[in-house]
Amino acid sequence: MTAEPIPASAPAPAATGDVLLKLDGVHTYYGQIHALQGVTIEVKRGEIVTLIGANGAGKTTTLKTVCGLLHPRQGTVTFDGQDVSRTAAHDLVRAGIGHAPEGRRIFSRLTVLENLQMGGFTRPRAEIDEDVDRVMTLFPRLRERTHQQGGTLSGGEQQMLAIGRAMMSRPRVLLLDEPSLGLAPILIQVVFETIKEINAAGTTILLVEQNALQALNVAHRGYVLQTGNVVLSGEAASLRENETVRKAYLGEI
To answer: For domain 19-249, which architecture applies?
Structure first.
């Protein structure tokens, strides 16, 4: 069973046109493996921008480079006008970059509440309860599981928790890596509708997603990555209609 795609109505327009996040000529390596080979992308304030491409194209590496888990050997990562190419990951969280990684990576032995509190480590203690309530309003299922260990949640609930934990730092840009991976169709719809809600509330989003159609239906713009290079970019609606994209990523012949 496959998920019905979210209708391709135009997303709400981005709040402003200024660039919040930019990668310029970025080359990132794993040891001697040249994973990103001159990637240049930009994300404007208020946008949802998606990265699509086959496995191994460099999508996850791009997010890891943005959030400081990897540092580029060449090129620059700029966030809100500042060069953050060499900035440590924990400092980037404080600066306003949140990351919900592929595979969720929640703390399985901690409760839902404790996971969220961990995500709020950069927030003043007095504001953490308010942030928890905000996340649980976004994901009512988590409120029902407040004291349940993360490892006992369903896959969909764990994904909600991973996104919620990233939201606890009140990020200005939220990096989402494969949020629909392994989810039942009905939960895929919930996750993507929530992504739209998060963006509508003012959070800029950089989305990596294997389900290209779903991603392009919620995004404002997109980039197609292939073996560490950007090979195509444009408005999401245009990419949906592009013949190459339709054949390679949307399952059309």
So the answer is: 3-Layer(aba) Sandwich (3.40)
For residues 33 and 180, the answer to whether their CB atoms sit within 8 Å is no
Residue 162 phi, psi (nearest 5): -65, -45
| 3-state class percentages of the chain: helix first, strand second, coil last, to nearest 5 | 35, 25, 35
Q: Give the 3-state secondary structure of residue 145.
A: coil
How long is the chain? Answer: 253
**Model pLDDT for residues 214-238, shown as the tens digit of each residue:** 899 999 999 999 999 999 999 999 9
178 dihedral zone (left: phi>0; alpha: psi -120 to 50; beta): left
Q: Which residues contact 9 (CB under 8 A, 6 or more apart)?
A: none
**If you ran DSSP here, which 8-state letter would residue 150 be given?**
G
d(CA 99, CA 160): 13
**In contact, 107 and 114? CB cutoff 8 Å:** yes
pLDDT score recorded for residue 187: 82
pLDDT 10s digits, 50-106: 999 988 999 999 999 999 999 999 999 999 999 999 999 999 999 999 999 887 788
Query: Position 222: which residue type?
Result: G
Cα gap 126→116, rounded to integer Å: 14
